[in-house]
Amino acid sequence: ITSIVLTSSIPGTTYTWTVIQMGISGTSDGSNDSIAQALSTTGIVPGTAVYTITPSANGCIGLPITVTITVNPTPIATAIPSTQIICSGEPTSIALTSNISGTVFTWTAAQTDVSGAAAGSGSIIYQTISATGNSVGSAIYTIIPSLNGCPGVPLTVIVSVNPSPAAIATPSSETICSGDTVSIDL
Q1: pLDDT tens-digit series, residues 104-156
Q2: pTM of the full structure
Q3: What local confidence, expressed as pLDDT, does residue 170 receive?
Q4: Distance between CA 159 and CA 151 in Å, rounded?
Q5: How many Å apart are CA 62 and CA 17, to the nearest integer?
Q6: Any bridge partners for residue 50, and if so which?
Q7: 167: which DSSP letter?
């Protein structure tokens, strides 16, 4: 939302404005002592709104001024894959892309019954995650795309981590005579 406050050294000054928009929506001509309009880009490149503001007081019209607002697009993140199932001790491999070139990505990680997931940044989440128990654990990544200081909508990716089985042999070693049968419980 724009936040343009209009003031003058002459008490009682009123203001009218016209606006030319390019690559954005949400502008309108008007009159008031402030301009507060919700502007949005209509594409993947920055757009502009050029306000021409004319003051008037006591029946006299002052010199118009212009105010240019640049509106940066909001990036949309995509994660491939959007969910992942791995075995304990394996790395994640989540590629992050956006609809707008130059987007940067940061993420936070919440862990349940796993270790190894951590906050970070970059275009790929590659972290070795291990189950901490005998049940399926998870790492939940919340990814925030950002471009020119404008954050996009957060994206959530869930990685399920299956525990790796461990074999136990009883007995762990045995000596037998030739022709005898081996008896090992697994």
Answers
A1: 999 999 999 999 999 999 999 999 999 999 999 999 999 999 999 999 999 99
A2: 0.76
A3: 85
A4: 23
A5: 13
A6: 20, 68
A7: -
- 149 to 27, 44, 53, 144: CA distances (angstroms): 22, 15, 28, 12
Nearest to 155 by CA among 48, 53, 74: 74
Query: Residue 118: is it exposed, middle or buried by C-beta count within 10 angstroms (0-12/13-18/19+)?
Result: middle
Residues in the chain: 186
- Amino acid at site 10: I
What tokens does 176 get? Answer: 């037998």
Q: Which of 165, 155, 54, 60 is nearest to 108 (CA)?
A: 155
Interatomic CA distance for residues 138 and 85, integer angstroms: 9
Contacts of 156 (CB under 8 A, 6+ apart): 140, 141, 142, 143
- How far is CA 86 from each of CA 32, 114, 143, 165, rounded to the nearest angstrom? 59, 12, 19, 13
3-state secondary structure of 110: strand
SS3 24: strand
Q: Is the peptide bond before 151 cis (omega within 30 degrees of 0)?
A: no
